[in-house]
Amino acid sequence: MRGNSTTTYGAVTKSFHWLIALLIITMIPLGIYANGLPYDTGEALAFKAQMFSIHKTLGVFIFFTALARIAWAISQSKPALLNADKRLEAMLAELVHWTLYAALVLVPLTGWIHHAATTGFAPIWWPFGQGLPFVPKDDSFAHIFASLHIVFERVLAISIILHVAGALKHHFIDRDITLKRMLPGTTEPDSVPEQHRSALPIIGAVGAYMLALVVGVNLGLFAATEQDSVPRLAAVESGWTVQDGTLAITVRQLGSDVEGSFADWTAAINFTEEPDANGVYGDVEVQVAIGSLSLGSVTAQAMGPDFFDAQTHDTAVFKADILEDGLTYTANGTLTLKGMEVPVNLPFSLQIDGDTAVMQGQTRLNRTSFNIGETYPDESSVGFDVAVTVNLTATRN
C-alpha cells in the first residue's frame, strides 16, 4: 500500500519519514564538525569549505524533501492516534509533530537565506546559483537569518528528542503499535479510540517558536556583531568633506570573488584645481578602522592574526600626494597596514561641479606585501591579488 489509510501509514509516508530522519542524523553532526574545523592553512580551509558545502547542499535537499513530505501528508488520510483517549498526551504529541514539521522547513530555509545574503567560503553544490530572489547581499540581514537558523536548529533538536522519546514510550511502556506502523510492512491496530481534533496543537507549536525567539533574543543571538560595534574614528580636518562614499575590497577565495567593505573610514582631503610648482594638486590622508570590515562569510577569518590581525593593528593609514596622470589623477603615496608600509598608487577619475566633487578610483594590492595570509603561501585557497575600490562624493569647505 503506497498511500495512508485511516489506521496505517503507506510506503510513501514511511519512505519520506526515514529518508528525512537519515538526512537529519547526518546533517546535525556534520554541521557541528564543520563549524569546529580549523582554517589555519590552505588545505584546512579547503576541507572546511568542502564540509560546509556538503552541509548546505544536504540542507537544500532536506528543504525540498520536507515540502514534498508535507504536501503528501496533506493529500493523505491521517492514521488514527492510538492514544487519543489520553487527551493531554495526544495533544502534546500533535504539538511536537507540528513543531517538527515546521522545523524541517525553517531550519534549512533560514540557513539558505543566510548563505544567499552573504558571499564567499562554501558554495551549494548545484547548478542554480547561490543567490535567492529578494534576498540582498547584506551582512546585517545575513546575521539575522544566521541567528534564526541557530534558534530553529535548537527547536528541531528538542522536537526530535521528544518525538523519539514518545515513540519509545509507545513501544516499551504502552506496548502499542505506534512505532511499528512506521516500519516496513502493514500492521493494523486491534482497535482505535475515538479521535478528537483540535487547533490547540498548532497554536502550541506557534507558541513554542515564539518562546524560542524570545530566548534567542535574551541570549543575545540577534545583537550586533563585534564588527557592528567597533568604535568609530574621530572626525578629521579637511579641505573637502566627504558626504557619502564606499571603500570596498574584493578578494579571491577558493575560486570565487568575495566582496566586502569598510564601514568606518575618514579622509582628510586637500585638493586644488591648480598644481603647485612641483605639479602636486594637494594631498590626502585616509584612516581606516580595520574592525569595521564586513567580508561576507569570511569576516571573522579576515580579522584573525594571520590576516588583518585587527586586535593588534586596528587602523590602516594611506598618505599620498595628488598628481595628474594624463586625463585623470593619481594618489601616489604609502599604505601602512599591519605594521608594514608599502608604496601604493591609486589612479582615480574626478568630476568637479562647483563645490561638489565626485571621485572614483581603483587599485590592486598584493596581500603578501603586508604579511597577510602567510600560512596560505599559494593562491589555491586565497588569491594574492586584492582589488580596492573607492567611490566618494565630497563638498568643498
Shape: elongated
Straight-line N-to-C gap:
81 Å
CATH class of the largest domain: Mainly Alpha
The CATH architecture name of the largest domain reads: Up-down Bundle
Low-confidence stretches: none
- Beta strand %: 15-25%
Averaged pLDDT, please? 94
Number of domains: 2
Give the strand line-up of the largest sheet: 3-4-6-7-8-9-10-1-2-5
Q: Roughly what percent helix?
A: 25-40%
What integer value in Å does the Rg equal? Answer: 29 Å
Main beta sheet: 10 strands, antiparallel
Helix-strand pattern, N to C?
HHHHHEEEEEHEEEEE
* Count, helices: 6
Under CATH, the topology of the largest domain can be stated as Fumarate Reductase Cytochrome B subunit
User: How many β-strand stretches?
Assistant: 10
In terms of structural class, how would the helical and strand content be classed?
A: alpha+beta
Q: How is the secondary structure organized here?
A:
Elements: H1 11-36, H2 42-75, H3 87-117, H4 139-174, H5 200-218, E1 240-253, E2 256-262, E3 265-271, E4 280-289, E5 293-294, H6 299-303, E6 315-325, E7 328-337, E8 340-353, E9 356-366, E10 385-396
Antiparallel strand pairs: 1-2, 1-10, 2-5, 3-4, 4-6, 6-7, 7-8, 8-9, 9-10
Helix pairs in contact: 1-2, 2-3, 3-4, 3-5, 4-5
